[in-house]
């Protein structure tokens, strides 16, 4: 018999070198007769000592001591006497019988599907076949038997833990070291968590268990099986292992650069440019992966942050930052260079902040714009990518969170032919989205809409957009002065930051133009004092300002999992504090976040606006003086119908749109604003 030569393919660790001696021998007999302890699986080639191979699969049984023997996997193993279920892949017949037994599928539907699939083979996982039928449960309440629901049902039926694979919560580098991609594919499984004590492995084949005995003695850790969606396992097998391979290869090319200060990185870059090759295929793969997952997870911002030893990647989803990956510093430097190159930024310059933009496409072909911003820090360049959703421009005011009364008051201002409309709020409160939505509706063929921005947030063909260029002393005031000679009807100024810009906005309004702009204040009445602080005379405010709208963004409850609960005593107190100084009866029940797969177990999905709209009525204009009493202005506005931000939030809580905690966290108290 020819000598069998063991070739290492199955695991990242070393087998047969050091801890596990391998004695090559020609052996006959069954696997169960040879196995002393556990077993490992590898690829074995037939041939001589030179290493010629044919690539057959072999098991490598071994004990705690003594040699290890190799036997062909084609030899059938004897089933254990106490094993209730033999090793096999899940079949469609098994799934259908279980579904019928549990009353989820009728016998007629099961028999019809079995007959239909009889001649089509078993290449597709049976859970996927059943999910494709789009059946509804035969038992109340008749839920759609989707793939996730079927997987969760099967896990409960077999006494296994159900696991949803969330790529943002998995250390892909760590799990890829547990086994090779080929080994994971062979058994339809994927490591999802590695600790010092155990390895959690997600599988789509609950009746294949021989790999447990093979892995346990090699990993020397406990193995916990969980059941996961077969489509997710197939997808992330490819992506996790390929991404881990790219990071490893890229790190090997740039190793030795971690822990360097910003200045040291500049010196090293000058010494060996090949260490940080932005066009390396591995770096290209990592950047593509990063963007793809940001789009999939509905991220609004991507943060790439250098630290002393590793780099952090974080996504902002629905206003909250989530840490996604830790990447070696050498790889992160190359990633930053790659992104700067695509954004037409100066790749060599790392000492000063830079801005850029990239236009790319999502996997489904939708165009997306990314605004880039770099910042030099102690450990290197920090890069933030703001993702602009093109769907924002086609949303209506109701989708943004406007109530009917809010929309009526806003339209009353925007349909005036001339004057100034101000939108206020902190950074990231949705001011630009509101202005773009408004301009999109106002930009008819009969009017000329021009904007001056710093920078241009979203490129829209319906507007004439101009960007501030401080390097050539083109600021907001100079931009407005230039736009005035372009025969505009509507002008949007990105932000009123100083008296010069405010004076140009007032001049444009006085000469018959409608001007929209933003300010940074906590509430709508404070915009008046802000203009006075800038040095704008009170009489010019009275003659030009049409109104002010303050806004905030709050997370909305996930529609798939939110549940109403009877209001508790502490929630009654929160409600009373929310609507103070007004009195309002609390709702009988409030919706609260629960968490499901649709919202990544956060209980929230998406964001909606809270609005406070102040109209400049004759009574309020009489109160605007050089020494304006802002408290009187606020009280008068309340009497005339202005709803404070917290009242707007309370209405959304009562409607089940968001939670009490979100409103308290985001909206300032009415008397403190």
Give a description of the structure.
- By secondary structure, this protein is an alpha/beta fold.
- 35% of the residues lie in helices and 22% in strands.
- The protein has 24 helices and 23 strands.
- The strands form 5 sheets. Strands 17-16-18-19-15-20-23 form a 7-stranded mixed sheet, with helices on both faces. It has a 6-stranded antiparallel sheet with strand order 11-10-9-14-13-12.
- A hairpin with a 2-residue loop joins strand 13 and strand 14 (380-388).
- Helix 9 (230-254) packs across helix 11 and helix 16 (476-483) runs parallel beside helix 17.
- The chain is globular, with a radius of gyration of 32 Å.
- It starts with a strand and ends in a 7-residue tail after the last helix.
- The relative contact order is 0.06.
- Residues 1-83 and 256-276 have low confidence and may be disordered.
Number of helices: 24
Rounded to an integer in angstroms, the radius of gyration calculated over CA atoms is 32 Å
Beta-strand content estimate: 15-25%
Mean pLDDT over all positions: 80
Spans of 5+ residues with little confidence (pLDDT < 50)?
1-83, 256-276
Distance between the termini: 88 Å
Order of strands in the sheet with most strands: 17-16-18-19-15-20-23
Oligomer category: single chain
Structural class: alpha/beta
Write down the overall geometry.
globular
- The total beta strand count reads 23
Defining key terms:
single chain, 673 residues, alpha/beta, 23 strands, 22% strand, globular
């Amino acid at each position: 018999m020819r000598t069998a030569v063991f070739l290492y393919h199955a695991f990242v660790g070393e087998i047969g070198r050091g801890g596990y001696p391998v004695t090559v021998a020609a052996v006959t007999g069954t696997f169960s007769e040879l196995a002393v302890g556990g077993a490992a699986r590898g690829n074995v080639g037939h041939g001589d000592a030179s290493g010629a191979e044919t690539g057959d699969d072999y098991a490598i049984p071994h004990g705690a001591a003594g040699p290890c023997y190799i036997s062909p996997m084609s030899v059938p193993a004897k089933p254990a006497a106490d094993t209730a279920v033999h090793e096999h892949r899940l079949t469609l017949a098994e799934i259908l019988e279980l579904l019928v037994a549990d009353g989820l599928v009728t016998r007629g539907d099961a028999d019809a599907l079995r007959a239909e699939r009889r001649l089509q083979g078993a290449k597709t996982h049976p859970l996927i076949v059943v999910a494709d039928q789009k059946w509804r449960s035969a038992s109340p309440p008749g839920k759609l038997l989707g793939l996730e629901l079927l997987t969760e049902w099967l896990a409960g039926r077999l006494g296994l833990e159900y696991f949803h694979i969330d790529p943002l919560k998995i250390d892909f580098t760590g799990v890829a070291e547990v086994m090779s991609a080929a080994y994971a594919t062979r058994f339809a499984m994927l490591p999802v968590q590695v600790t010092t004590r155990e390895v959690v492995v997600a599988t789509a084949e609950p009746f294949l268990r021989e790999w447990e005995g093979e892995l346990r003695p090699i990993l020397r850790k406990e193995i916990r099986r969980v059941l996961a969606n077969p489509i997710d396992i197939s997808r992330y097998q490819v992506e996790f292992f390929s991404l881990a391979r790219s990071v490893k290869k890229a790190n090997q090319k740039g190793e030795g650069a971690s822990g360097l200060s910003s200045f040291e990185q500049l010196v090293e870059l000058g010494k060996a440019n090949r260490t940080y090759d932005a066009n390396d295929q591995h770096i290209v793969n990592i950047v593509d992966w990063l963007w793809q997952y940001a789009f999939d997870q509905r991220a609004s911002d991507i943060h790439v942050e250098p630290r002393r030893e590793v780099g952090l990647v974080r996504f902002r989803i629905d206003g909250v930052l989530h840490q996604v990956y830790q990447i070696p510093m050498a790889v992160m430097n190359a990633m930053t260079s790659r992104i700067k190159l695509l954004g037409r930024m100066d790749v060599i310059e790392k000492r000063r902040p830079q801005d850029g933009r990239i236009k790319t496409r999502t996997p489904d072909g939708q165009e997306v714009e990314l605004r880039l911003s770099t910042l030099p820090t102690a450990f290197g360049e920090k890069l933030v990518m703001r993702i602009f959703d093109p769907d924002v421009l086609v949303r209506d005011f109701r989708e943004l969170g406007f109530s009917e009364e809010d929309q009526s008051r806003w339209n009353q201002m925007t349909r005036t032919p001339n004057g100034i409309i101000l939108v206020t709020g902190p950074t990231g409160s949705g001011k630009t989205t509101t202005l773009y939505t408004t301009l999109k509706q106002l930009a008819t063929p009969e009017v000329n809409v021009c904007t001056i921005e710093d920078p241009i947030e979203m490129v829209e063909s319906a507007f004439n957009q101009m960007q501030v260029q401080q390097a050539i002393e083109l600021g907001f005031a100079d931009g407005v002065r230039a736009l005035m000679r372009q025969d505009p009807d509507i002008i949007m100024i990105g932000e009123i930051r100083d008296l010069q810009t405010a004076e140009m906005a007032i001049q444009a309004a006085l000469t018959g133009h409608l001007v929209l702009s933003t300010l940074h204040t906590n509430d709508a009445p404070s915009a008046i004092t802000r203009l006075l602080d800038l040095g704008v005379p009170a009489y010019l405010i009275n003659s030009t300002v049409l109104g002010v709208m303050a806004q905030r963004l709050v997370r909305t409850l996930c529609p798939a999992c939110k549940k109403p609960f009877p209001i508790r005593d502490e929630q009654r107190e929160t409600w009373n504090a929310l609507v103070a100084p007004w009195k309002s009866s609390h709702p009988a029940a409030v919706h609260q976040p629960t968490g499901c797969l649709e919202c990544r177990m956060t209980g929230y999905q998406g964001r909606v606006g809270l609005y406070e709209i102040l109209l400049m009525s004759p009574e309020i204009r009489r109160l605007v003086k050089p020494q304006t009493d802002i408290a009187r202005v606020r009280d008068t506005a309340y009497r005339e119908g202005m709803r404070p931000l917290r009242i707007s939030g309370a209405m959304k809580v009562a409607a089940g749109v968001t939670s009490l905690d979100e409103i308290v966290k985001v909206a300032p108290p009415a008397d403190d604003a």
